[in-house]
Design brief:
By secondary structure, the chain is α/β, with parallel strands linked by helices. The protein is built from 11 helices and 12 strands. 41% of the residues are buried.
Length: 341
């Protein structure tokens, strides 16, 4: 018995002595055969526990064996600002979540590489805003004012209605300098009012409770009851029906139409994992990815697939507007008009 215990102890000590050698060998093998990955920069709500990222990551790994490293930088406007600041040294392979209102600024940087994914021919043609496929549509919806029907029995029917005294301090908007919905709303007002857009914003100002930095914070204020009107999307009420079983929150349908937002993703020319990134973009236009979008990102898919039943309360705009992008000078004019020190 003593001899057996002695041999067991000797074997245990030998294992301890050799374990660094084996673990070192494993580390060397890991370095030689790293797990394939792709690095995707996106906005916070996409990469949240309730957003598309977890399901996208799981399905992409199952289909390709490639892991996704998500990096979020606030709202889409902040993602673009960070990319332009870091330039070729940005550690991303793909930028996901920029929209057509940011396209000119993004593409002028020269940081994006053309790539037409497999499945691109199935994308609704009216959604393709970059024929060179440097920015590739991934989803779309229409900007809208969402309202709490328990507090607003008579919702606004136009942008002009929002200036009514009845809506004083009841509207939550987003900053167009940092938020893609905020930028889209500014473009929408410019499309409708033309050269008189600044006069419109002066009339609108008394109705605004706050201008949030991004959509997530702004919509959170709305759902917590801070105000009964918020800038969001025609598709937002479907979320509340799907997960809360309520039709309390509704879309205000405007007579002049609604500005469309087309979100896109693009391959960076200096991507370190370029082949993996191309596989991601192929996957992005597949039914596997597109079927995740409606019930997680609350947008419409860019290919023809069935929609969830809850989308019955999300009206597609009968008049889809495609406003001209807002210039840097116009953003400065907006800030001088609306931001008080």
């Amino acid at each position: 018995m003593r001899k057996r215990n002695y041999l067991s102890a000797l074997f245990f000590l030998l294992c301890i002595a050799l374990s660094p050698l084996f673990s070192g060998a494993n580390r060397d093998q890991t370095r030689q055969n790293p797990v394939p990955e792709v690095v995707v920069w996106t906005y916070d709500s996409f990469n949240s526990e309730w957003g598309p990222a977890p399901d996208v990551e799981k399905k992409f790994l199952e289909e390709t064996g490639i892991t996704i490293k998500w990096v979020s930088h606030g709202d889409a406007g902040e993602v673009l600002s960070r990319l332009l600041l870091e330039g070729e040294s940005a550690g991303a392979d793909i930028i996901l979540g920029l929209d057509q209102n940011m396209a000119e600024k993004a593409l002028e940087s020269g940081l994006f590489e053309a790539y037409k994914p497999s499945g691109a021919d199935k994308v609704f043609p009216e959604l393709i805003f970059d024929a060179g496929f440097r920015l590739i549509p991934l989803d779309y919806s229409y900007f809208a004012i969402v309202y709490d029907s328990e507090r607003i029995p008579n919702p606004p029917k136009s942008l002009e209605d929002l200036t009514d005294k009845a809506y004083g301090k009841q509207l939550i908007l987003m900053d167009p300098r940092t938020s893609s919905p905020g930028l889209g709303f500014l473009a929408w007002t410019k499309e409708v009012y033309g050269g008189n857009w600044k006069d419109y914003w002066r009339r609108l100002s008394p109705s605004i409770l706050t201008i949030a930095e991004g959509w997530s914070s702004g919509y959170g204020l709305f759902t917590s009851g801070e105000a009964p009107l918020v800038l969001s999307y025609t598709t937002s009420p479907s979320y509340h029906l799907e997960y809360e079983g309520t039709e309390r929150y509704k879309t205000a349908v405007f007579n002049e139409g609604h500005a469309v937002q087309i979100e896109a993703a693009g391959l960076l020319s200096h991507a370190k994992n370029k082949e993996n990134a191309k596989k991601f973009l192929d996957f992005m236009l597949s039914p596997s990815f597109q079927s995740i979008i409606p019930l997680t990102n609350w947008m419409y898919p860019v290919i023809d697939i069935p929609l969830p039943a809850s989308f019955r309360i999300s009206p597609k705009s009968g008049k889809a507007l495609r406003p001209r992008p807002v210039s840097s000078g116009e953003l400065d004019e907006w800030a001088a008009l609306m931001i008080r020190n």
